[in-house]
Amino acid sequence: MEKIIKSFEVITEATIPFIYTFEVGKEFGGQSVDDIIEHNGVFKLFNRKDELITEIQLPLVGVRYEYPVSEVM
Question: What is the rounded distance in angstroms from the CA atom of residue 30 to the CA atom of residue 15?
Answer without folding.
Answer: 23
